[in-house]
Automatic annotation (TrEMBL):
This is HTH domain-containing protein. It comes from the Bacteria. InterPro entries: RNA_pol_sigma_r3/r4-like. It comes from Streptomyces lacrimifluminis.
């Protein structure tokens, strides 16, 4: 997780250009990680409701976002 650590560090940079780029990259990384974990959960038989509960969102929201994959 060196990339994530580096990005988190840069997100706190005093230069807004560096900080904002790091925030954007972190957002993309989190989206990728979420997709991987949702696929893993579905492959292990988890329901959309169980996944939603762990993510703190509604079943409809998680299904809309990841259901088409």
């Amino acid at each position: 997780m060196t990339e994530a650590t580096d990005l988190a560090e840069r997100a706190g940079d005093r230069d807004p250009r560096i900080g904002l780029r790091a925030v954007s990259a972190l957002r993309k990384l989190v989206e990728q990680l979420e997709s991987v974990q949702v696929r893993s959960a579905r492959n292990q038989g988890w329901s959309w409701q169980e996944i939603a509960a762990e993510l703190g969102v509604s079943r409809q929201a998680v299904h809309k976002k990841h259901g088409r994959h």
